[in-house]
UniProtKB/TrEMBL annotation:
Enzyme class (EC, first level): hydrolase
EC nos: 3.5.1.9
A Pfam match: Cyclase
Listed name of the protein: Kynurenine formamidase
Length: 210
């Protein structure tokens, strides 16, 4: 068994979705001075590699603690996304993919290599609303992306988030190291913190390969 880490570091200066506050990490106590170390983390819950709960966009949608513990975990299939001049990910992208009910679909775009560059925010491919409906019709469990969002940052109505979360399809964003996965199918694990009333959570995402 091999376990592959798919999560970004949480650190000051890391990329954030436009409009979010900058992350602050402050040392409140030091071993040398206080006898123990204590660190304070200030940011929103949609931080680094994280998951979206239905409540993120759906009125009266489930918050993170109301979801099953395996909501973002299960059998996954990887989908390689070629360079798309128009940046649009359409249903045709899944032609030839052996998609099963309950799958977690991991889109490998290669954008994680631009993590600290402007391109990561402005040039990533994103799902069409048609593809979102296609995934719902196929009864997938969740999607994962090595990008900052399944919608473009220019959007004002977030149609893909609404389609997926409105149908209880989980979303995991800002994955990394997907190039280390050398199998089409694997076990994907992403466990959120059990934050009461929260619309999302950072996750430690991993791939488990036999």
């Amino acid at each position: 068994m091999r376990m592959i880490d798919l999560s970004h570091f949480i650190e000051e200066g890391m990329p954030q979705y436009p409009g979010q506050p900058e992350i602050k990490i402050e040392r409140l106590a030091e071993v040398e001075k206080d006898g123990y170390q204590l660190t304070e983390l200030k940011d929103v819950v949609h931080l680094g590699t994280h998951c979206d709960a239905p409540a993120h966009f759906i009125e009266k949608g489930d918050t993170i603690e109301k979801l099953p513990v395996d909501f973002y975990s299960g059998e996954a299939v990887i989908v390689d996304v070629p360079h798309l001049p128009d940046r649009l990910m359409r249903p045709e992208l899944l032609e030839g993919v052996d998609l099963k009910e309950g799958d977690i679909v991991i889109f490998r775009t290669g954008m994680s290599k631009y993590w600290r560059e402007e391109a990561y925010i402005k040039e990533f491919p994103y799902l069409t609303e048609e593809l979102a409906h296609f995934l719902v019709d196929k009864k997938v469990k969740a999607i994962g992306l090595d990008t900052i969002s399944p919608d473009p940052v220019e959007t004002e109505d977030f149609p893909v988030h609404h389609v997926l979360l409105g149908n209880k399809v989980g979303i995991i964003e800002n994955l990394t190291n997907l190039e280390a996965i050398d199998k089409k199918r694997f076990l994907f694990i992403a466990l959120p913190l059990k934050i009461k009333g929260s619309d999302g959570s950072p996750v430690r995402a991993v791939a488990i390969l036999e």
